[in-house]
Each structure stands twice: as C-alpha cells, then as structure tokens.
Design brief:
The longest helix is centred in the C-terminal third of the chain and has 35 residues. Strand 3 and strand 4 form a beta hairpin. The chain is mainly alpha-helical. It is elongated and about 80 Å long. It has 18 helices and four strands. It is 59% helix and 4% strand. The N and C termini lie far apart (65 Å). The protein has a four-stranded mixed β-sheet with strand order 1-4-3-2.
Length: 491
C-alpha cells in the first residue's frame, strides 16, 4: 500500500466510524434484517441484488453488520486513491490527501453509511463513478466500451450516482487543460464522454429498467416524467434548491454556500482558460475556454442532475450524494489553478472537510440517542395497550413525538439531521416494522384499509384510554390515536 492510500483509508474510516458505533437499524434495514429480502431489482437496481447475493451466497440475507460497512470503507478509499493517482499524479501533500477528502465534505453522504445493507451497494455505485474517471484511454474504442459498461453498472447499482460520474467528466476537462492537450483532443474526448453517458442511459432505460422495474411509481421511487418536461424540470429545480437551502448548512444558507463554491470554481476556471488561451489559439481553443467557464454552473445543476426529470422531487439526503462530486470537482479545479508557490493553500480545504466530519459525528450520536427515546416510547405504548389486542388495532399518530435533547441541540448546527434522523411515530409504513422489531405489533392504516388519518374525529369522538407526559391515547372503533400534541377537540 502506498502512503496516500493509507491516509485515505484512515480518513474514510474516520468518517464512517460514528455510524459504526451508532449501530442503528435504518429504515429499510428493519425489513431486510428481519425478513431477509433483497428486492433492489424491483427498483431498477438488479446489480445491487447480484452483489448482495454473491456476498451471502444466497438470495436470503441476514444481518452481518458491520461487515458491509467495513467493505464499503475499503472500496471507497481504494476508488478515491485511484482517482487521486489519475487526477493528481506528481502532486505532493497536502493536495494528495485533502483534495480526495473533500468528497466527504457533504453531510448528506453520511446517510449512505447509516444503512446496514444498502451501504455496500450504494458505495459500489459511488466507487464505480470514481473509477469511471480512471479508465485508461489509450485505445479510444476500448475506452468507449468500458466507459459505457461502467456507467450502465452504476445505473444498475444506484441510479443517482450517475451524477457523480458526470461531474467527474468535467474534472477530466480541467485536467486536459492543465496538461495543455490540443483543443481538438479535449473537445473530442468530451464528446466521447457525453456519448458514453447518453448511450448508457438509453440502454439502461430501454433495456434494463423495462425488464426489472416493478412498475410501482411511488413518491419515493418516482418514474421519469412524460408530460411537460420543462415544467417538471423547473418545479424539481426549485424543490431541490429549497431543500438544500434549508438543510445543508444552518441559517438557510445551503444554496449560498454551494453558489460561493461555484464562483470560486469559476475563478479557477477563468485562470485555467487564460493560461490555456495564451498557449493555444483558434476557434476550438476558444470553445474549450467557454465550456470550462460554463462548467461550474452546469456542475451546480448536476447535483440533482438526472433527478430533475423525475415525476416528483426525491427530497432525501442520499439523493444528493452528488454534492460530494461537486466538492471534489471544485477542490480539483481550484488546485489546478494554483501556482506552485500557492500549493500550501490546500490546507484551507480542512475547513469544509472538518465541517463534514463534525456533521457525521453529530449525526451518529443523534441517531443513537434518538433511538433510545424511540424504544422507550414503544414500551410506553405497549404498556398502555396491554389489555387490548394491539395486533387488531390500527395506529394513527398526531403531532411530533418526543425528541432527544442531544438530537435537538445538534439540529442548531446541522439542520440536515432533520431529514436524516427518521421519525418512527408518524403516519407512514416504517414505524410499524420498527415497533414490531422492538416487541410491539399494531396494524398500519394503509391507503386501502379504509382508515382515515384525519385526527379530528378521533380527538372529538374517541375515548381517552391513557395519558402520560408524552401523549394522550384515544380509541375509536378499531383505531388508536397517539396524540403528542395533548390537544383538545376544539383546538
């Protein structure tokens, strides 16, 4: 192992460590750890199924945490090391370590490490996106074939990771400008990469997705939009902008933060373009410079990227893993623009890296402490329903369940925790497997159950059966309302 790989392995481990010690069953983990299913293929991710079946040598999974996380750490460190060798060959410390570590200056990425099972398949997709940048290009047709196949594999593992691969195509553009490749070569390479992405997308959508996708277009697994694409693109862009603004950094500054980085990248691109045009003339060279100057703002759009054309926005942390690619691209472009005397400025990259690290640790601790609150609350509900056959009653929730003081305090600095720490006492599916996994069973009021989640009728016409500092419990027919607001019928 080279020293840079050891540094990257250590750094990656530091970011994954808080989720290792949190040892949490995160959303889908509950079902997979208790029932053993894979079923990623139904979401258009057949290679994810294959990876896990190969790991278990079976189609039935069991909980082997933390092995998938440890394998993911090694895989991600290896791919970042290969990326660094390709993008920063000849560079010295601190660039060799700090630039790849900016990949973790994305608090949303921490959600990937939260999963006991999905962590391996999601990390495999991310790693392939990084390795796509590293594919040898001596034989153009071999590179075209291997690049297309790699991108198809990324789609089949986790579709959103394709945005990272596209962002790193832009990194390749800047690298070629620094090397002073001929403008025609740069444009030809860029065109080939675009064709690889388009061909892989068509093959995936027309051949693979049509065979594997279950056809259930749920809000958390939306299909491609088919109507007014411009309207969909605009509405989704606005939704992701608001989501990032509200959750990436505090004081609703998420978009300002990313825009500031994009402007810094643009200034770096300007410096690279001026140097490039000083040595090369002509229309093609000017075209390269124009593309380089547009790239920082195209990169900003590529954070949601392919998600912009789905039927509805997918507003979750893991859907924005491309922030990692954006940060890596920005760090690389800025580094390329630095003169040898200014290379020590790479130490400034510690600022976003350290922010990312503290967010990961705050998240891991918040998950663990909130889970203690959740388990206690499950036992309270179980005790208050001790004389009722709970498995015959539907549960409906109203209001905000109690939150750990550790979690609420961390929210002040890390607003992304609000969308990363699950609420298991709300009206959706996963609270019921969660409660069952903690010793209490009740019925989920599915949309076709005929049970309404309109709480007013339960508050006004239900019979109070229990009350404590956390909630009031009402019963009406076969429905139990858990009211965290302590509200009356009139309110």
């Amino acid at each position: 192992m080279t020293s840079s790989f050891r540094y990257l392995l250590f750094g990656t481990s530091l970011f994954a460590f808080p989720l290792l010690i949190a040892n949490n069953y995160y959303i889908d983990d509950i079902g997979r750890s208790t029932l053993g299913y894979t079923n990623w293929g139904a979401d258009g991710r057949p290679l994810a199924d294959l990876v896990m079946k190969l790991l278990f040598l079976s189609s039935h999974m069991t909980d082997i945490f933390p092995l998938p996380l440890l394998l993911s750490v090694f895989m991600l460190a290896f791919s970042l090391h290969q990326f660094t060798k390709k993008a920063l060959g000849g560079w010295q410390l601190p660039a060799l370590v700090f630039i790849p570590l900016t990949f973790f200056a994305n608090p949303y990425l921490a959600e990937v490490f939260s999963y006991r099972f999905d962590v391996l398949t999601l990390t495999a997709a991310i790693s392939l996106s990084l390795l796509y940048f590293c594919l040898p290009s001596r034989n153009r047709w071999l590179r075209f074939a291997s690049g297309t196949l790699t991108l198809i594999a990324v789609y089949c593992l986790y579709q959103t990771a394709i945005n990272i691969a596209v962002l790193l195509v832009m990194a390749g553009l800047y690298q070629q400008m620094v090397r002073q490749d001929k403008a025609k070569v740069i444009l030809t390479t860029l065109l080939q990469r675009i064709v690889e992405v388009l061909l892989a997308t068509v093959i995936y959508l027309k051949l693979i997705l049509t065979v594997t996708f279950s056809g259930k277009n749920e809000a958390n697994h939306p299909a491609l939009a088919t109507g007014n694409l411009l309207k969909t693109w605009t509405e989704n862009s606005e939704a992701y902008s608001r989501f990032i603004a509200d959750t990436l950094v505090k004081n609703h500054g998420g978009m300002h933060y990313l825009l500031g980085i994009a402007i810094a990248m643009w200034l770096a691109a300007l410096a690279l373009s001026l140097l490039f045009l000083r040595r090369q003339r002509g229309v093609m060279a000017a075209g390269v410079a124009v593309i380089a100057l547009a790239t920082p703002f195209i990169a900003l759009l590529m954070i949601p990227g392919s998600l912009l054309l789905l039927q509805n926005p997918l507003l979750s942390a893991r859907s924005l893993i491309a922030v990692s690619g954006f940060m890596l691209l920005a760090a690389l472009a800025i580094n390329y623009a630095l003169t040898p005397r200014l290379q020590q400025a790479n130490w400034l990259l510690l600022i976003p890296v350290v922010y990312g690290m503290t967010a990961y640790y705050a998240y891991g601790n918040a998950l663990r402490q909130q889970d203690k609150f959740n388990q206690s609350l499950v036992q309270e509900i179980k005790w208050d329903m001790r004389e009722l056959p709970s498995e015959r009653f539907y549960l409906v929730f109203n209001g905000q369940a109690p939150q750990s003081p550790v979690y609420t305090n961390s929210l002040k600095n890390y607003p992304m925790l609000a969308v990363m720490v699950p609420d298991y006492f709300a009206n959706w599916y996963w609270p019921f497997p969660y409660m069952k996994n903690n010793g209490f069973s009740a019925l989920w009021p599915t949309p076709d159950s005929g049970v309404t989640t309109d709480t007013a009728q339960y508050l006004c016409y239900g019979k109070p059966v229990a009350q404590n500092q956390d909630y009031v419990m009402y019963r009406k027919d076969k429905v139990i309302l858990i009211d965290f607001t302590h509200a009356s019928c009139d309110s």
